[in-house]
Amino acid sequence: MCSSATSRAGDRAPSGRFTVGPSRQGTFCSSHRPSACHLCWSRLPPGRAECSRGESRRSRKVRGACEAMADLVQRTELAGFLRSKREGTRPEALGLEPGPRRRTPGLRREELALLSGVSTTWYTWLEQARPISVSRQVIESLARALQLGSLERAHLFTLAGLALPVDAPAPPEVDDTMLRLLHSLAPNPAYIVNPWWDILAYNSAYEALIGRLDGLSPHELNTIWLMFTEPRMAALFIDWNDEVRQLVGQLRAHLARNPSDPRGPELTEALQAVSSTFTQLWAEQRVDRFKGSRKRFSHPRLGRLDLDYVKLAATDRDQQFLIAFVPADAESAAALGRLALDGSVSSADT
Asked: Among residues 4, 146, 258, 282, which is most buried (max CB within 10 A)?
């Protein structure tokens, strides 16, 4: 063994050959390379100081050390951000008395903990960057107590290693040109919906056909919801049974294509809670697609109406559709004309 291949005591392999630890790699001359791995004692091929198992173990150690360091940095950043926001929040802004002996700028730790619904000890640990777990609810409570803006709130969730909760989407705006087209279709009934059949806008002819819609909440202003919860719809649509069965099939197909949209499960759960008919049809597992068809109405004042049902998509707004009813014959066209001139709403509003 050459002088450059000196080994520490205890580095002797079971076979009597000398090996070397990580700090000694590369110290062997060409004639005295180690023949066994210093980690698992397996025989090494020429030119190798460590087997693949040893390299894998070493890489896991390095990766674990990096992850621990990253976690410490993130916890330190979170602690500093919370401390800064706490000290920058005036007690008066939250309805607290500042008190004569307040030495801490902004809120005290115990005050913020109380406002957030956590213990003072736990919050203190959080500001000390201790390795404790945090929940989405607690981070949300801290953001609310500190009155963080949307950007700061998002940053707080990022530092806590949590996905930002999805805010309720704002009501979609209907394009002004599409709205003018909608109202220009009168006396033909028409309305605009999103992919979940939520009604975004409608003209006076549509309301005159199916009944009053003002006063309904956005949750109720939905064509599928109306079909199952408004008794007037069952009387108005001659083929109501076929209509609702097709709608349920279309809803199931759309839900399968958009499983991450919360509106789908919300709508189906709400319908199952209020309509046994919907629950029964939903259990049939029927799948359907939209197809233009002729709708037959039995209007309480105008009598029989046959209207063709068409659906138009806006090219620049793929989440909005214009639905229009076109008279299928002269009698239906004349009836819609009388309905528009009358300006009254059908007896469905009673």
From this structure: 146
